[in-house]
């Protein structure tokens, strides 16, 4: 096999160029690459969502401690407690209501699709090997025709080897040319349910997050949202920072 490739590179064996197969293989390779990237990115997305909900719970826990340590009866303490309870519910619901559907509707279908690629690649590899055999047999036959050997059995034997290798190659080549486009055509109906499930789960997570966190807003004064929109809360933060700077332990005089 390596010798045949070397002979092709040095021009001693003419290489068959099949543009139709080359085009279909290029489309397939693009699809293979995209699916593998999609599988990797979908896992990264889910890991990031899980990490986000976990980190959000830790933030809420710290805020609850901050506000509760100052005054457990204050609106801030109640807001901190409500926020902690809301994000804990989101974190628990994420694992309970979304983990299995995401794995079933998205991760597993992607994994099953990607599992076909090694099988298809094996067929392509086998086709390429048979192409080398055919090119080698054709080259030998051309040399026998150009310079007939003294042994009268060599030419018929060379013709037979050529015909058999061509028949095997044509079967594999025609199969790939016919079925690679069919595989690509199936990708949209195959991934449609996964795409819809992805949108539904993202929407559900966002809606539940909005619903639960909206309940925390009632612990803040009615004018907080207006003050934030007007930039007054930024000024309030700057004022507090200035007071901190004036403390000796923060660098004040």
Blueprint (SSEs and pairs):
Elements: H1 2-9, H2 19-70, H3 75-146, H4 154-185, H5 187-214, H6 224-229, H7 232-245
Class from helix and strand fractions: mainly alpha
**Mean pLDDT metric:** 85
Compute the separation of the termini in Å: 83 Å
**Helix fraction by DSSP (H/I, runs of at least 4):** over 70%
Rg (C-alpha, Å): 34 Å
Shape: rod-shaped
Low-confidence stretches: 6-12
Individual helix count = 7
Helices and strands, in order, run as HHHHHHH
Strand percentage: under 5%
For the secondary structure, the number of strands is 0
Description:
The protein is mostly helical. 84% of the residues lie in helices and 0% in strands. The protein is built from seven helices and no strands. Helix 3 packs antiparallel against helix 4 and helix 3 packs antiparallel against helix 5. The longest helix has 72 residues. It is rod-shaped. The termini are far apart.
Short description:
By secondary structure, the protein is mainly alpha-helical. About 85% of the residues lie in helices and about 0% in strands. The chain has helices at about 1-10, 20-70, 75-145, 155-185, 185-215, 225-230, 230-245.
Task: List descriptors.
253 residues; rod-shaped; mainly alpha
């Amino acid at each position: 096999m390596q010798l045949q490739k070397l002979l092709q590179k040095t021009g001693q064996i003419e290489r068959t160029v099949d543009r139709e197969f080359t085009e279909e293989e290029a489309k397939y390779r693009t699809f293979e690459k995209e699916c593998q990237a999609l599988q990797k990115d979908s896992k990264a997305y889910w890991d990031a969502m899980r990490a986000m909900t976990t980190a959000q719970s830790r933030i809420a826990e710290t805020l609850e401690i901050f506000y509760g340590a100052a005054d457990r009866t204050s609106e801030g303490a109640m807001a901190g407690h409500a926020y902690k309870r809301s994000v804990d519910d989101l974190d628990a619901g994420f694992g309970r209501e979304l983990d299995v559907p995401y794995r079933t509707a998205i991760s597993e279908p992607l994994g099953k699709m990607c599992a076909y690629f090694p099988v298809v690649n094996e067929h392509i590899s086998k086709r390429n090997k048979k192409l080398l055999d055919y090119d080698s047999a054709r080259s030998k036959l051309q040399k026998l025709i150009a310079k007939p050997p003294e042994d009268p059995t060599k030419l018929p034997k060379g013709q037979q080897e050529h015909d058999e290798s061509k028949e095997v190659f044509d079967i594999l080549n025609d199969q790939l040319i016919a079925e690679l486009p069919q595989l690509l055509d199936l990708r949209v109906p195959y991934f449609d349910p996964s795409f819809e499930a992805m949108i539904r789960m993202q929407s559900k997570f966002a809606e539940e997050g909005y619903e639960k966190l909206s309940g925390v807003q009632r612990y803040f004064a009615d004018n907080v949202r207006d003050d934030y929109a007007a930039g007054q809360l930024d000024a309030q933060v700057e004022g507090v920072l200035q007071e901190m700077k004036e403390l000796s332990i923060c660098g004040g005089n």
